Amino acid sequence: MIARVEDPARLQDGLQGMQIIGIGYQPAGGVNGGTVVDMSAAETAIGHAVEAAERMAEERITSIYVNLTGGDPVSSRFRAEVPIDRAPVADDHVIDLAHQGPAEPLPDQCETVHLIPSQFAIDGYNGILDPRGMTGRRLGALLHVVSADSSPICNLRQVIQRCHLKVERPVVSALASGLAVLTPDEMELGVTVIDLGAGATNVAVFLDGAMVYQAVIPLGCDLVTNDLARGLSTSITEAERLKTLCGSAIPTSIDDRETLDVPLVGDHVLGPQMNTVPRSALVRIIQPRLRQILEEVRSSLDLAGTEKLAGGSAVITGGGAETTGVRELAHTILNRHCRIGRPPAIPGLSDLATGPAFATCAGLLRYGIDPSFDLAMTRRVVRTDSGRLGAVGRWLREHV
């Protein structure tokens, strides 16, 4: 997606104030589970998508924000404090917090992707959302670090550079999706975002306006497509069509009475051979795999101890969220209120690109106009009175 800022005054409302001027999409060739596995195929897919967006926008772009799923991004949190010597808190003090670093340094093969503070405190007084201008002796914060293996990130940058583009920043997919589909109240009170992608499932927990946890489950909805192809002896393309148009994660009373003609895989001299199956056969294949994925999400959240942080709600997004019944299945497995997350209406965005599958891309736009969601004092603090990006956001882009 290519967007142009039309009304800077409305950007603080999230994705309002911008106009989509170009969009392009292609099958994700050369990528498996978010990791580049074929440089040439990935270069071709990216190049075609960018070319289509540029042609529509009648603009040439030189740099992009890209979502990151590969590299096994992991979360860790640590508390940091810096002296402020009774001076008013400024952006430089928050930058000093980042220099404290966790007690255990990152492994040599890892790099920092995000550094997000929350729970500010001055002299032990917690619950401060915007410490700027306050005075005291010491400023503290809980810092959420997202790190990932540098090799997959390097390969992602290289394949994009082969398309004559620069990566402004990689953004973990769950953060981007959350920025697109969450309401301000959800981000404040606590919510879990579950992005059911093709190659992997991305999970994030938001609280007090910031992402406080993220994880990548190496199971995606491509597995559902493969299960259908094998179980029904049909092609991958036909299995994807059946999943999208006829699939469901929840059985109904009419599934056994409704039949579908499924072309068998392979070439046939006399034309395609059809196999007639009840719709319930699709449900029996789709539901176990989606259940497995959602149970892995639940285990990840339980292991991280995020139950008190995540609140009682979850937002399901990504291409897999378009499967009928997935919200009800998620509610049963996660035992929390669930809704389907779609990006908000953005001027210029066609109806075809407003579904959950486009949430990550829309979230990258929001990150692009305000990347200081990293190392920033939540949404309220990232902009200075002059309207420029805060020194914190600039420092992160330059040094982390």
Describe the structure.
With 400 residues, the protein is of the alpha+beta class. Among the domains are: 74-148, Dna Ligase, domain 1; 174-357, 2-Layer Sandwich (Nucleotidyltransferase, domain 5), CATH 3.30.420.40. Helix content is 34%, strand content 26%. Strands 13-12-11-16-17 form a five-stranded mixed beta sheet, with helices on both faces. The protein has a four-stranded antiparallel beta sheet with strand order 6-9-7-8. A two-stranded antiparallel sheet has the order 1-2. Helix 4 packs across helix 10, helix 6 packs across helix 7 (236-246) and helix 8 packs parallel to helix 9. The longest helix has 26 residues, at 279-304. The two termini are 25 Å apart.
Could you provide a short overview of the structure?
It contains 12 helices and 17 strands. With 400 residues, the chain is of the alpha+beta class. Among the domains are: 74-148, Dna Ligase, domain 1 (2-Layer Sandwich), CATH 3.30.1490.110; 174-357, Nucleotidyltransferase, domain 5, CATH 3.30.420.40.
Strand order of the largest sheet: 13-12-11-16-17
Distance between the termini: 25 Å
DSSP summary, beta strand count? 17
Mean pLDDT: 85
User: Helical segment tally?
Assistant: 12
Helical percentage = 25-40%
- In sequence order, what are the helices and strands, one letter per element? EEEEHEEHEEEHEHHEEEHHEEHEHEHHH
Named CATH topology of the domain at 174-357: Nucleotidyltransferase, domain 5
The CATH superfamily of the domain at 174-357 is known as ATPase, nucleotide binding domain
Strand content: 25-35%
CATH architecture of the domain at 174-357: 2-Layer Sandwich
**Structural category:** alpha+beta
Say what oligomer this is.
single chain
Low-confidence stretches: 376-400
State the name of the first-level CATH class of the domain at 174-357.
Alpha Beta
> What gross morphology would you assign?
globular
